Each structure stands twice: as C-alpha cells, then as structure tokens.
C-alpha cells in the first residue's frame, strides 16, 4: 500500500465502512493520484508531490458527515469546462466516421452542444468579481452518489439494449438460420462496426458524473488546491 492509500485509509479509520465510504475512498485516492501526476509532470519530485497532495487532503468530515460547502460558481465553471472538453472530444471522434454518411446527424448535434457549452463557459468566465467567485453553497453528496449510480446503471442498460438491437437487426437472420456472416474488406467492416461503436460515445455522460466529486473537493470551502 503506497503513501496515498495509507493516508486515505487513516482518514477513513474513524468511520463505518459501507458502500458510500468505499466509493468516496476510491474517488479520493484517484484524485490524489491525479494531483501527484500533475505535479510530477511539471517537474516536481515524486516525494514532494505526494506530500503536497496529502497536505491538501487532511479531512473528509465535510464529505462524510454532511453536505460540504463549495464555491459554487468556481465549481460550475470547471464542470462546464470539463463538459465542453468531453463533448468536443466526442464530436472530433465523429468527424472521420462522417465519411460513411452515418454519423452526420450525431456530429451536428454534438457540434451544437459544443457551441452552447462554449458560450456558457465564456459567460461564466467573464465575471471575475470576488463576491461572485466566492459565493458559497452546499452540495448534496449522498443524493449525488445515488444519482451517479443510477446514471451508470442506465448507461449499462442502454449499451446492452443498443448492442442487442443492432445485432438483431444486422445479423438476426444469419443467427436464426445459422448462416455464416461474411464481411468483405475494410469498408464493409467499418460500416458494420460503426453502429456498435457509436453508442459508446454516450459514456461521456457517466464520466462527467464521475468527475464531479474531484471538482467538488477542489472547490470545497477550506480546501485549497494549487493549479
């Protein structure tokens, strides 16, 4: 067990171990590891980076005992920024697939979302007043964890239904009559594979939910992170 894991285990030592604390423990370790990675990439020694990450996580009382208070507008700005990055990446992935003419509606939809998120981020980022930036609000962690699990479950069901439906539509007769499936050349392979791969783009939604707790701790009142 490394120093980060030992530190997190120590933070949770006084709390009852249940599903919520296990999920929070995993999130905190992941966030600390990401912080150490960022610091070492900027040239800092590993030991020093680990020490800084540990110093910035000295309590989990706000996450366990109640709803933590956060600088809500800073939190919103970063959440919108991450949403923009995820959506932009998804849009870029659909561009080369558009050559086949099957992803153009999805690509256009994602492009519109990118524009909307970009405008929202610019509007939020324009306001630099301390009063606005330092506005504090509470965040319902326990409720959010339930919603996050629900989102992942819905996404899993969606993927199963999508793959099953696509398989039935494209290969149903082959499977029913036990005929072999022939794919002639890379173009036909691409045409066959794209309907299976496109639904995977929707993973940006549960991934966005996963990133919320890391942003939440970053902008929690009383916690400071170095960029």
Extract low-pLDDT stretches: none
Largest sheet: 2 strands, antiparallel
Question: SS-based structural class?
Answer: mainly alpha
Number of strands: 2
Radius of gyration: 22 Å
Order of helices and strands: HHHHEHHHEHHH
Percentage of residues in strands:
under 5%
Q: Overall 3D geometry?
A: globular
Strand order of the largest sheet: 1-2
Helical stretch count? 10
> How many separate domains?
2
- The CA-CA distance between the termini, in Å, is 27 Å
State mean pLDDT (0 to 100 scale): 81
Proportion in helices:
over 70%
Descriptive notes:
It is a single chain. With 227 residues, the chain is mainly alpha-helical. Helices cover 72% and strands 3% of the residues. The protein contains 10 helices and 2 strands. A two-stranded antiparallel sheet has the order 1-2. The model has no long low-confidence stretch (mean pLDDT 81).
What topology does this entry show?
Layout: H1 3-11, H2 19-41, H3 46-55, H4 61-65, E1 69-71, H5 72-97, H6 104-126, H7 130-133, E2 136-138, H8 141-176, H9 185-197, H10 204-218
Antiparallel strand pairs: 1-2
Helix pairs in contact: 1-2, 2-3, 5-6, 5-10, 8-10
Question: What is this entry, summarized?
Answer:
The protein is mostly helical and 227 residues long. Helix content is 72%, strand content 3%.
Notable characteristics:
two-stranded antiparallel sheet, globular, mainly alpha, 227 residues
């Amino acid at each position: 067990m490394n120093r980060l894991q030992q530190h997190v285990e120590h933070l949770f030592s006084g709390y009852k171990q249940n599903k919520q604390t296990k999920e929070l423990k995993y999130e905190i370790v992941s966030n600390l590891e990401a912080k150490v990675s960022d610091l070492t990439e900027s040239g800092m020694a590993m030991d020093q980076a680990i020490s800084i990450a540990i110093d910035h996580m000295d309590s989990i009382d706000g996450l366990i005992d109640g709803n933590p208070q956060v600088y809500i507008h800073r939190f919103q700005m970063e959440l919108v920024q991450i949403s923009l990055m995820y959506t932009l990446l998804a849009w870029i992935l659909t561009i080369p697939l558009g050559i086949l003419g099957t992803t153009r509606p999805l690509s256009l939809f994602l492009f519109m979302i990118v524009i909307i998120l970009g405008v929202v981020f610019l509007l939020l980022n324009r306001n630099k007043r301390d009063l606005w930036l330092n506005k504090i609000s509470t965040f319902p962690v326990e409720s959010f964890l339930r919603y996050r699990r629900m989102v992942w479950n819905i996404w899993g069901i969606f993927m199963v239904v999508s793959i099953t439906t696509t398989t039935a539509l494209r290969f149903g007769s082959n499977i029913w009559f036990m005929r072999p499936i022939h794919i002639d050349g890379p173009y036909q392979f691409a045409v066959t594979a794209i309907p299976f791969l496109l639904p995977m783009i929707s993973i940006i939604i549960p991934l966005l939910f996963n990133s919320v707790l890391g942003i939440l701790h970053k902008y929690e009142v009383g916690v400071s992170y170095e960029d």
